[in-house]
Amino acid sequence: xxxxxxxxxxxxxxxxxxxxxxxxxxxxxxxxxxxxxxxxxxxxxxxxxxxxxxxxxxxxxxxxxxxxxxxxxxxxxxxxxxxxxxxxxxxxxxxxxxxxxxxxxxxxxxxxxxxxxxxxxxxxxxxxxxxxxxxxxxxxxxxxxxxxxxxxxxxxxxxxxxxxxxxxxxxxxxxxxxxxxxxxxxxxxxxxxxxxxxxxxxxxxxxxxxxxxxxxxxxxxxxxxxxxxxxxxxxxxxxxxxxxxxxxxxxxxxxxxxxxxxxxxxxxxxxxxxxxxxxxxxxxxxxxxxxxxxxxxxxxxxxxxxxxxxxxxxxxxxxxxxxxxxxxxxxxxxxxxxxxxxxxxxxxxxxxxxxxxxxxxxxxxxxxxxxxxxxxxxxxxxxxxxxxxxxxxxxxxxxxxxxxxxxxxxxxxxxxxxxxxxxxxxxxxxxxxxxxxxxxxxxxxxxxxxxxxxxxxxxxxxxxxxxxxxxxxxxxxxxxxxxxxxxxxxxxxxxxxxxxxxxxxxxxxxxxxxxxxxxxxxxxxxxxxxxxxxxxxxxxxxxxxxxxxxxxxxxxxxxxxxxxxxxxxxxxxxxxxxxxxxxxxxxxxxxxxxxxxxxxxxxxxxxxxxxxxxxxxxxxxxxxxxxxxxxxxxxxxxxxxxxxxxxxxxxxxxxxxxxxxxxxxxxxxxxxxxxxxxxxxxxxxxxxxxxxxxxxxxxxxxxxxxxxxxxxxxxxxxxxxxxxxxxxxxxxxxxxxxxxxxxxxxxxxx
Length: 750
What we know:
- The structure is a single chain.
- It is built from nine helices and 31 strands.
- The longest helix has 21 residues, at 211-231.
- The termini are far apart.
- The protein is globular.
- By secondary structure, the chain is mainly beta.
- It has one domain (2-559, 598-749): Beta Barrel (Maltoporin, Chain A).
- The protein has a 22-stranded antiparallel barrel. A five-stranded mixed sheet has the order 1-6-7-4-5. The chain has a two-stranded antiparallel ribbon with strand order 2-3.
- Helix content is 10%, strand content 49%.
- Residues 1-43, 210-231, 276-307, 355-367 and 562-594 have low confidence and may be disordered.
C-alpha cells in the first residue's frame, strides 16, 4: 500500500503522439485489445496489416524496422528482435491480440519471435513506459499483432484469399491460404502459410575476418582469403523454413461474443554464427586449399560447399485461446472482457555433420553434439471490467500467468525456472475544459523461482524471489489550435529482473559469451519524461517527440575486461587449474575460465539515462489523378551509464526519406534509410559503419468482375546492394544484412 500511495503522488505522463505519415494507414480497429482497454490512444502507432502483407515476408522486427523510434537486433534473416527507443529484450513485450507472446525469444539472441504475420489486421506499437497499461515490466514498449481469428463480429460474406511470393535474395518462396465464413451463426476462420527460404545473398566483400585470423594464415593464405571474401556471396546456415496454421471459431451477438482458437507454428532455421564453433569452422575453411574451387559453385550448392558442421534450430508451438466479451449493462459494470491462453513452446538447437541440407524436413545428417531443448509452458488468465460512466472512462484489469522455462542439453546455460505474475490495474481517462487527462496504475505481484549450479563443484543453490512492483503513467494532452496538439507526460515503471538475468550461468554460443546472472539483482525503475508536438493541416504535417528516461538499477550484460577476468580466474579456480583448463589449452583462450573462446560476461546493474527524439515533417500533394506524399524523419537515441560509459548495442541515429503515390488501386512507395556510423560504443564493442538502405514497392489492385480482386506487388529491398551491419546485433561482423533483393507477391481474394 505504501508503494501505491507514493506512486499516486508522482505526476507526469508518457504518451507520445505518434508520427502519422510514414506511409502507414492509420486505420484504427476498434476491436483491438489495446485500444479497447482504455481511451488512451496517443501512444499507439498503428500499422495497417496490408502494409505487412503486401511487402516481402520478413521477421517481425525487420517488418517494423523503418518506423521512427523502432529498430532491430537481428541474427540472420529469421531472427529480428524489436528495439524501442534503445530498449530491448524483456523491456519490450511482443503481444498476440493483447496477450503476451510466451516463447523463448528472451533466452537467446538467436531465438526468433513466435509470431505469424499471415492475414493480420494491424500491428500496434507503443513506445515508452506507457505500455504498462498492457503488460508488466515494459520499460521500452510493446508490439501487439492483431488478427480476427476469434472474430468479435459476424462475417457478412465468405472470403477466400490465396497468395504466392518469391524472393531473389534467398531463392525462396512463400504461399498462403485464408478462409472466413459464417456457418449457421458461427464465424469460422482458417489460415495456413508455408515459407521456405535458402541461404541469403550478401554484397561482395561483406564478410569480415579478425586480424588474428589473417596472421595465422600467412601472406599466401591471406591472398586466397581475399579471393574467398569476394566470391562468397551468401551467408552459410542462414536458411529459414516456417509452417503456420491457425483455426478459430466464434459466436457474436448483442450480448457480446465468445470464441476459441488453435494456433500452431513450426519452423526450421540455420544459425549462421555460433560462438566457439564459428572460429573452428572458419579456421577449417580458410586453412584448406579448396578456395580456388569457390568460383565454380552456384546457388544450388549454397548448402554444402563450405561448412563441415550445420547448426540449426527447430521450433514447435501450440497455443489454445478462449476469448470473449459479455455486455453486462449493469449499474456498475458495463462489460467484461475475458481471456484464457495455454501455450506449449519448444525450440531444439542441434549440430549436424553437413552432407547438404536442401531438404528442410528431417535433417538426417549425423549429429556431432547432443541437441539442446528450450521449452516454455505458460497458462494465462485475464479479465477487464469496464466501469465507465458519462463523465470518465474507467477500467479495472486482472491478469495471472504461470510460466515454466527449462533448458536441457549440452548447451544448457540455465536450470529450470518458474515465473508467476498476478496483476491488478486501474485506468481512467477524462476530458476537462482545458485538457484531457489519462491515468494508469498497475500493481504486479511477481514470483521467480530458479537455481544456480556451481560451475566447479556442482553444488546447486535454490532461489525464490518474491516482490511487489508498482507502476503508473499519467498523460496530459491539449489542442493548442485546430491543427496543433501538445502532449506532456511523466511515468514511473518498475521491472523485476527476468529469469535469465537472475539465473543464467553457462556458455551462450549465440552471443559468443559465458554469461553469468545474479540472483541478488534488484528491480529496474524507469522514470520517463516525454513531450510531443503534432501539426497537421491536411497539406503540411510535422511531428516532434522528445524523451528522457532515467533508469535506476539498469541491468546490462557487460563483458569483463581481461585484467579483471584474470584476477577472478586466479581467485576462483586456482585449486583445480590443471583439470579445469585442459580444453582451454587446446583453444588458446585468452580469457581464461575454461570457457573455450567465449568472452566472460556478467549481468550487472548501474543507473543509466536514455534520451533522444523523433522528428518528421512532410507535405501531401494533390495531383488530380492521384496523391503524392513526401516526408523526412529522423530518430536519435543516446544511452549512457552513470559513470559516463556508453550502454552497449545502441543503434545509431537514422534519417528516413519517404515518397508515396496512390492512384486508383495503384500504390508506389519508396524509402531511403540513411543510418549513421555508430562511434558511441560500449565496453568491448567496436564502431559500426553507416549505410544507406533503399527499398521500394509497387502494388496494383485489379478488380475482377466485382466479385474478386487480384493484388500484385513488386518489391525491392536494399536496391543499392549496400554492405550493411546492424550495431545492435551480437554477430554484426560475421552476419551482415542481406544484399539486393527483388521479389513479386500475388494476393487473390474471392
